Amino acid sequence: MSQRRMGATSLSQLLGQWHQENSRTPVYQQLANGLRQLILDGRLPLGCRLPGERDFSSLLDVSRTTLTSALALLREQGYLISRQGSGSITLLPESSPAISPLPGIAPVLDLSAASLSAGPEIHHAYSTALTALPEHLSSTGYNSQGLLSLRQVIAQRYCSRGLPTDADQIIIVNGALNGLGLVLRLLTGPGDRVVIENPTYSVALSTIRGALCRPVAVSLPASGWDVEGLAATIAQTSPRLAYLLPDFHNPTGRCMDEVTRQRICDIAAASRTALVVDETMVDLWFDKPPPPPMAAFDKADNVITLGSASKSFWGGLRIGWIRAPRKTINALIQMRNTFDLGTPILEQLATIALLNEAENFLPQRRNLLRQRRDTSFAILSEIFPDWKTSQPEGGLSWWIELPKAQATVFSAHAESAGIRMGAGPRFGVDGAFERYLRLPFTLETPAMYQALKRLQPIWQQLMEEPSERTRNIIV
Amino acid sequence: MSQRRMGATSLSQLLGQWHQENSRTPVYQQLANGLRQLILDGRLPLGCRLPGERDFSSLLDVSRTTLTSALALLREQGYLISRQGSGSITLLPESSPAISPLPGIAPVLDLSAASLSAGPEIHHAYSTALTALPEHLSSTGYNSQGLLSLRQVIAQRYCSRGLPTDADQIIIVNGALNGLGLVLRLLTGPGDRVVIENPTYSVALSTIRGALCRPVAVSLPASGWDVEGLAATIAQTSPRLAYLLPDFHNPTGRCMDEVTRQRICDIAAASRTALVVDETMVDLWFDKPPPPPMAAFDKADNVITLGSASKSFWGGLRIGWIRAPRKTINALIQMRNTFDLGTPILEQLATIALLNEAENFLPQRRNLLRQRRDTSFAILSEIFPDWKTSQPEGGLSWWIELPKAQATVFSAHAESAGIRMGAGPRFGVDGAFERYLRLPFTLETPAMYQALKRLQPIWQQLMEEPSERTRNIIV
After folding, report:
1. Does 3.90.1150.10 match the CATH number of domain B110-118+362-472?
2. Is there a contact between A115 and B142 if contact means CB atoms under 8 Å apart?
């Protein structure tokens, strides 16, 4: 396993509010539940060595016996392995609830992923692609920049959004996240700082950590972006790059205005900081389209844009792209040999068909999402009247403020009941957002209603005095 | 750019035999050519800082002025950028010959990649996949372990090769190289040692270096494998894992016998070293099928097997898989969130169709390759009678021993004439294999003949006294 070691301070920050004062659940079980949740949702990486018991127990303010019992329970459940001289190392049990539901429980309902199923245009696009395939079959199929014809269509879309772009400025990758990984490998080394919005897209955060970079958080204010905070953070920490989601930010659903785009581009230019802008959600707007791409405000070639077909079209297409200055694209093409050897040809051909037809079906997709946003808001208001949220301008989910900072405990209980949740701390650093949940509105309305109804008693129990029944659910 | 810095000693080792004693090409140009070749074929990573000029020039035994002139030339050609206080950093020029041919030169003929074009079965497989697609369209398309139906077919193939395997022991990835990257991310950290065969598959070497691991070489003897050398290297260096190609080793085309497989598995078990076995070429045998998979000799769950559809079927399908113990697979599934979010559904369905039909078209593919191997051998013997090689038992290429250690210079000249070559040092560490070339026999015979004919005068010039014409080709 890897040599990563988690310090006692970092891990206790990550654990956040694991302890419920008046609970009848023994403290060691609560601690084990908190750690298990961190492992399950990937905030505590697999193969990571836990801190020494003496330091860790004193920082957590629990007895050594409590900590030992918690670790013993996790070992028994298959979440830790202890090796002589190496301490305890995180892993997943052979049949992990992250993969299959717990035995005897209804199939897992996944409220942690925000994604729609495919529309009829997907099958049609693949059929079109199949007719275009034969001319590519005489090649070896390896193509590290991606098909020129696809890059041209993508470049054209940037042009029509107000950003002159040439096909040479595009590389096709296996999804936006794969693109982020490639950019990180090119621009960063272990220990480098990467500025993120806090909260941010949880999987991007895992990717940044997976590249052994240190995320440096700039908190999002109640609305918009904290431009001064970003400038100060860049000045103070000299990050290698900043990863931003201006177009229907995930998880909050907000959109950055033109003035802010310009100011942030200017800050990046002055400090020569690369801005990596993830536009995955850009097509999913509800009321009005977003301003021109961030890169259109960039006079200094500092912006690298990540695009994706996964949310606009379908997640089962694993296609994304990177738009960047030509020099960066050339370097990325070569860097790719350390990563993968290109993107499937047929997927690229299908994406051409989809991009060509996009304006015929995207309006309908936006309508569908707008409806689901509105009906899910009505259901939420009825079932959880004390939850607060604000209307997302685009994207796929609600960012919900809970009346109590109990998101981790809540989602641990929900997981045991077969519902996977996106607890707030997954979207932030240092255990922040214990008071938040991300809730996608991508499910069809009956399924959404059913899921929220199943969550209702779990939440109510948490809000009330802890009882014997709560303990049973936790165990 | 990244913080990697290349030490003077490492870089001069990497450069190997860059200097031709009696050449009329100025020394600074020869040095620039050598460095350019390292950048072009990826041995000198992009974004890498060159060593300080004082140390570097003294190690290379050239004057400071020579080094400065060489670096100036590379800067002018776009292969280096110099930043105040950061020294010289490698990059690729905007229009790089690694991507497009040099202006005014015939299109590049690529003899560096070993891969076939697609047979008629590929289009047929995608058509079959398209009829199976609709049942998957109601899902979000994200599937981090891969389709169960594909994993079952793959597991069944391992069973029929003598290795009992369950679908739970498989994860589908985007090609074997992507699988290697995922395994490296799980099992290693920066600076960890990874044992490799020397020579080995060049792209795997880039992937290992890209993961910031240190390759530790065990040289291949004239035939077979050096089991004692492997055991001693493992004992002395405590590597995290060893990456091996027992089934038609790339680039040598040899196959490991059963006794050696058993001994290496026993060594790995005794030292608890993970063996990562790349079976990409396993279907491409000429005379007899290979022994059972390496993992069949493993009693201690130490072997992780990488499989691929790229060589058996087509490189334009980006499908690979990992077979490993269940615990490792579960950890890889979670690790994948730091990498990509899964493999395209349709590609997986097409691979099912191909695996089901494989025994109907693989024999023909093997025949084709056997013929190309034999005719290319005849052509090679005619045009380059002083080159030596031995018959590969499988795979796609010749590993050729040249009469002079000039592979890097030869391939630099060939590149300028529009032919990309796989110079030996790409397949090894520390500048080894200057006397070797990898030459794929995947081209159709007329194209192969034409390519070798174009190489003939370039090689002859190199063998003779250097002349004014050689200089012109180099410049």
Report:
1. yes
2. yes
